[in-house]
Inverse folding.
C-alpha cells in the first residue's frame, strides 16, 4: 500500500466539488494514502473570507464526513498569526521524517502565482507539488525563469512521487470542474441554486447559517 500523503490548502469559503472531485480522482490515479485538507488563516491585509474560521472548518468537516481518505488539519486555523505554506510544510516534514514522500496539491491557477509565494522554492525541499487542472488557466508560466524552474522539476511519472520524498512537480490529468467559491458566493447572493456544486450537507449548513446572502 502506498504511503504518499498529500496536503491540500485553501480558503474553502466554501469548500466545493471543484476542490473535492479533482483530488479524489487524483488519489485513485496515482495512489494517495491520505488527503489532508487544511483551511488557511487569512492574513489581515488580504480580503477576508465571508465565513468565519469556525464556519469554514465546519463546512470542511461536513464535506469529508463520509470520505475516509480525507482528514482535516486545523494547524493554520489555530495559529494567531497568518501562516506561510513554506513554514507549514517544514513543520510537516519535521513530523513525518526525512524519507516519507509528501505532496502539496494546488490547482492550475495557483501554479501561475506560486512563484510569488513566500519562500516558494523551499516548499519543494519538503514536498512534491501536484497540480490539478482547472479550466481557464494556461499551463505555462509567464516569466521564463519561472518556466525554467517548472521544467527543471517536472515529472510525467507518478512513481517519482512515491520513490522520492520531495522535489518533483507533477501535472495531474484530472478532469475540469468549472466551479469556484467566488461563483458560489455570487450565485447564493442572487438566490440561485448551487446544488450541483457542493455536497448537500455543506449547502444545508450555508442556508441554516444564512451565509453568503
Ligand atoms: P475563490 O473563488 O474564493 O478564490 P477557490 O474556489 O479558488 O476560491 P480556494 O479555497 O481559494 O478556492 O482554493 C484552494 C485550492 O483549490 C487552490 O489550490 C485552487 O487552485 C484549488 N481549486 C479551487 N477550485 C478548483 C477547481 N474548480 N479545479 C481545480 N482546482 C481548484
Amino acid at each position: 500500500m502506498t504511503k504518499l500523503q498529500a496536503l491540500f490548502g485553501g480558503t474553502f469559503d466554501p469548500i466545493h466539488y471543484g476542490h473535492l472531485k479533482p483530488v479524489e480522482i487524483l488519489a485513485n490515479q496515482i495512489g494517495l494514502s491520505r488527503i489532508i485538507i487544511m483551511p488557511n488563516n487569512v492574513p489581515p491585509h488580504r480580503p477576508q473570507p465571508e465565513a468565519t474560521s469556525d464556519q469554514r472548518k465546519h463546512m470542511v468537516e461536513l464535506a469529508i464526513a463520509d470520505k475516509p481518505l480525507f482528514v482535516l488539519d486545523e494547524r493554520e486555523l489555530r495559529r494567531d498569526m497568518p501562516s506561510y505554506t513554506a513554514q507549514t510544510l517544514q513543520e510537516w516534514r519535521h513530523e513525518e521524517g526525512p524519507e516519507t514522500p509528501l505532496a502539496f496539491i494546488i490547482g492550475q491557477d495557483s501554479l501561475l502565482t506560486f512563484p510569488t509565494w513566500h519562500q516558494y522554492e523551499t516548499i519543494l525541499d519538503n514536498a512534491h507539488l501536484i497540480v490539478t487542472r482547472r479550466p481557464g488557466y494556461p499551463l505555462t508560466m509567464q516569466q521564463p525563469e519561472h518556466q525554467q524552474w517548472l521544467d527543471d522539476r517536472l515529472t510525467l511519472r507518478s512513481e517519482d512521487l512515491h520513490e522520492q520524498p520531495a522535489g518533483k512537480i507533477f501535472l495531474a490529468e484530472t478532469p475540469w470542474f468549472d466551479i469556484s467559491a467566488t461563483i458560489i458566493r455570487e450565485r447564493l447572493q442572487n438566490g440561485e441554486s448551487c446544488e450541483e456544486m457542493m455536497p448537500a450537507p455543506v449547502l444545508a449548513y450555508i442556508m441554516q447559517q444564512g451565509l453568503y446572502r
